[in-house]
Amino acid sequence: MCVHSFGIYSSTVINNITGGSSPLSIVLGWSVVINAFYIPGTLLGTFLIDYLGLRTTMVYVVHTTKLVCIWILFCQIVGLLLQAATGFAMSTMYSHI
User: CA–CA separation, 80 vs 76, rounded Å?
Assistant: First the structure.
């Protein structure tokens, strides 16, 4: 499975949203919105590693059962779909934002 960071495509997404001829302040604002998606996962990950400990977290990741792997994959898919839905909602509501 290959997972790409959403930030790789941010310039293309912003270019499509703004039409490619917007002022720098508008492009910067959309970049901030896209990069805000990283904050919840980072905070949750830091608290999880702090609570479980680094060694426990690494062992847990390496020795997961099939059910846990399926659950993690399901959560990743749901997260990706929610991110896509948010992007579509932002693009349809662009004139009102």
Answer: 6
Q: What is the distance between the alpha carbons of residues 80 and 73, in angstroms, rounded to a whole number?
A: 11
**CB contact at 8 A, 30 and 9:** no
Number of C-beta neighbours around residue 59 at 10 A: 12
Check: CB of residue 83 under 8 Å from CB of residue 37. Answer: yes
Q: How confident is the model at residue 2 (pLDDT cuts 50, 70, 90)?
A: very low
Chain segment 4-61, per-residue pLDDT in tens: 566 677 788 888 888 888 888 888 888 888 888 888 877 887 787 777 776 666 655 5
Q: How far apart are the C-alpha atoms of 77 and 84, rounded to whole Å?
A: 10
- Count the Cβ atoms, other than its own, within 10 Å of residue 72: 12
